[in-house]
Amino acid sequence: MSVLLILGMMILCLDFGDRYIGVAATDHEGRVPYRYGTIDQKVQEALDEVEHIIEEEAVEKVLVGVPVSLEGNETEQTYKSLKFIEDLRDSLGPEIEVESVDETLTTVEAQKILRFEGGKKNDEHAEAARIMLDDYLKGEL
User: What global pTM score does this model have?
Assistant: First the structure.
């Protein structure tokens, strides 16, 4: 996909975890990734909350991080993330593109960035999502 197709498209990126889902988004020009927030699955229904964000922000594409081990093997969390992607596609229908992205080491990088910034631990998941989104956008250039 060329840069011209991405510009003007708001993209949402999700760092899916058992309890928390980190959310990052691009600005409405599709250029600048930022931390959007965190969904606490003990408090909020994940699919409903993602649908709400998509509707509120006019999101056109959703990326979901899928982890693998450092050796490149699938893990239990890999399967949970793939199931979430499947559920998200079923929930959103064909109008919203849902794509998987590699999330290898994004949590470690997010922790380092937040320590450097003096940020809050609760921003860790959203920062991991922002890193994935930033990597995705750089790959499109």
Answer: 0.86
DSSP state letter for 102: E
> How far, in Å, CA of 88 to CA of 85, rounded?
5
| Contact between residue 85 and residue 98 where contact means Cβ atoms under 8 Å apart | yes
- The backbone torsions φ and ψ at residue 95, rounded to the nearest 5 degrees and listed phi first, read -70, -30
CATH architecture of 3-140: 2-Layer Sandwich (3.30)
Q: Beta strand 61-66 with 11-16: parallel, antiparallel or unpaired?
A: parallel
**Which two tokens mark 85?**
């992607």
Whether 2 contacts 52, CB under 8 Å: no
Q: Copy the structure tokens of residue 11.
A: 């993209």
Q: Crossing angle, helix 46-57 and helix 76-92, to 10 degrees?
A: 50
**What are the tens digits of pLDDT across the range 90-121?**
999 999 999 999 888 788 788 788 788 777 77
Residue 33 · residue 124 · CB < 8 Å: no
> Rounded to an integer, what distance in angstroms lies between the CA atom of residue 14 and that of residue 63?
6
